[in-house]
Amino acid sequence: MYGWIWRHLPGNTGVRALISLVLVLAIVYILFQYVFPWAEPLLPFNDVTVDNGMAVNR
Amino acid sequence: MTTLRPERPPRAVSRPLPPEETASRPLPPEDRMTMQLRRVELPAQRTETGADGGRAARRKGARGAHRAPRSRRSHRSRRAAASAPQAVSGAGSGTAQRAGSRAGSRVGSRAGFGVMASRFVGELFITTGVVMLLFVAYQLWWTNVIAHHQAGGAANHLRKTWDKGVGKDRDAGAFSPGEGFAIIYIPALDVKAPIAEGTGKHQVLDRGMVGHYVGALKSAMPWDKQGNFALAGHRNTHGEPFRYVNRLKPGDKIVVETQSAFYTYEMTSRLEQTSPENVAVITPVPQGSGFTRPGRYITLTTCTPEFTSTYRMIVWGKMVDERPRSKGKPDALVG
Question: For labelling alongside B85, which of A13, A36, B143, B231 has CA 20 to 30 A away?
Fold first, then answer.
């Protein structure tokens, strides 16, 4: 998968490394900005608010 | 990583082998596996440039091994066996050697599919692991960065609104959920966070703000003649304003700043942990706090133990000072 991507990137090694870096940063940005905030309430790790305890169970 | 490889094989090829290795000519299965896995990682140019370890050479060697007289055969396949483990070649060397006499290229391409599939699955696993690590970083670090930013913005906005003199903080019905109306200071913990109406996760708590209980659990406001000003805040992540409330000692000051006044509370007692359903701790005369008569109290609620949401930690305090904003900061915030 990554090998395939690497082979299909244009340019020489330096240019490819630069493009790869940009791609990785873009993916991390998308994860932090959109995916994780969406996934957070669905995961059981962080039901830390009193809202989930006191208020709702009331 | 692949570009670092090509230096090695020539050495391996030229090195003579001990006789016992020559004897075990049909390679053991592990070696075959190694060759199959390595084969794809390696740069394709090597096939063209490499004089010794290339695919063509190896296939020729394998074919030779099948047909050639005994002496030549042993020489060729020894070379192939020696170069293969660290081999550098384009594609199809391992299997091509194994089944070289029949239809090397066809078998090679079929094995290539299996290798590619397993590589894909492996990369998928690695990616999943990296994403999980990123999620941990997001939870423990990034949410705090964001929440501090948002809370700082909310506090500044609050100050501006107060300076403009918009709204009256004594009108208790005026605050809509999520709206900030005060700032809490805990000097002992170096905490400063805006207080907003409601304890909604998305609207209030996840923005690094402290929530004021409303609705079914409605609690008093600081300016009420008596009552319990009950607040909730994150213990971890999202600004974690109440992370260290367990370090508060009796006598530590908690200051609430509103549009018209500073209200100073003094911490009196703490409940290490209680069930999340125990709402008696935020009633006007909180159960377990030691208070027996109605008065002007403050209750801080947060999660405990840290990084879980199993129980709630409760901290109580009572008001000791009310100071109009016109008279400046209370002593607790000076120095």
Answer: A13
